[in-house]
Amino acid sequence: MAIDHPLSDAADLDAADPLASHRDRFVFADPEVVYLDGNSLGRAPKSTREAILRVVDDEWSGELIAAWDHWIDLSRETGDLIAGHVVEAHPGEVIVSDSTSVNLYKLAAAALDARPGRKVLVTDDDNFPTDRYILQGLAAARGMELRTIATDLDRGVDPARVAEAVDDDTALLCLSHVSYRSGAIADMAAITADAHAKGALVLWDLCHSAGAVPVPLASAGVDLAVGCTYKYLNGGPGAPAFLYVRRELQTSLRQPIWGWFGQRDQFAMGETYEPVDGVERFQVGTPPVIGVTAVREGVRIIAEAGMKAIREKSLRLTEYADALCRAWLEPIGFTVVTPAEAERRGGHVTVHHPEAWRIAQAMRDAKVVPDYRSPDRIRLGLAPLYTRFADVHEGLTRVRDLVTAGRHLEYGAERGRVT
Ligand SMILES: *Cc1c(COP(=O)(O)O)cnc(C)c1O
Prior knowledge:
Blueprint: H1 7-15, E1 34-35, H2 46-63, H3 68-71, H4 74-85, E2 94-96, H5 100-113, E3 120-124, H6 129-142, E4 145-149, H7 159-165, E5 170-176, H8 188-197, E6 201-205, E7 224-227, E8 242-245, H9 247-250, H10 289-305, H11 307-329, E9 335-336, E10 348-352, H12 356-365, E11 368-369, E12 371-373, E13 377-381, H13 389-404
Parallel strand pairs: 1-11, 3-4, 3-5, 5-6, 6-7
Antiparallel strand pairs: 2-8, 7-8, 9-10, 10-13, 12-13
Helix pairs in contact: 1-13, 2-10, 4-10, 5-6, 11-13
């Protein structure tokens, strides 16, 4: 029998990959591990370790408090780097601060205040849990209605459904650009335009987009966005997130947490809160300098590679993984659920299997690291900067072999605290 998808195909694709050398920028502690989870926690860049040591040894230890002269601008500078290289935005529209959850709260609350009299928030039932919970909390606190659209878990957000739900009473529409579960991309431009026609503000969650797919914030006229930096931006566990506010909106929006890092002439220690005009007004308190330094390092690597080349490789990787999954895994009970069309596909490929949880556990023991997502899906995250086609080949070979041998059946059905 002819072997379909021989390893030599993967080797050819790797040899032709213009981003291949970027892999050397990252740490590979165990070369046997096939890491397909860069969309949950990106790998550590080698230069991040050096940059953090510089902050600790030279700046903190050496300069002591005088280092605040340059630390004070780090969040804004890193935001500008994200605006210039990761998302389509202008300088002064992005800042690094807090977590994605906190930024979502700040921007959503600011948006609701900017639409007084409107009583409805709209999201979808497949939005990431923290987004749904924060919107539930805001709706409860303000006596507003949270309208939740039903989204197909695999096809992603349907613009027609969104258009039905958003009306003249809608203050804010909040959705994820790339679905964390299926990897489906939502039509940012069409959905934003429709909501604007009804007078609503729009807030996009970019956690699974930033560093994986183009994010047309400026051309789609997006008002607000949040995103995290520890996934495709390789900023490290719990690295601070970023937020985006379209420049024309900045002075008319007030966030709910009136901290001193948003204050005009901050060190005058003035009596009353009067926020600065720029994007800094969406900061709250002292930034975590070591964390922001790690974000800057991760974003620098993305900037060097360029989002265009990253997206091109990402599409080739997901197409390759899709082909292998269909050829090898569908005959043994899997189904590929990520949209097949390139323009609807984010940076990961999701497969469905009734025994997904057992298989995910067995995969980890076979040193192929995926993400399990309820109810019965496995995400294969293919971070373009360090994932080789040969890794996809090796990882999926191991999955095929272990499921064919029934090794996953040795694992229990009960789930741990972190999946
Ligand atoms: C990872 C992720 C988050 C994480 O939010 P945190 O505040 O960093 O915990 C939020 N939204 C989406 C869509 C995510 O994928």
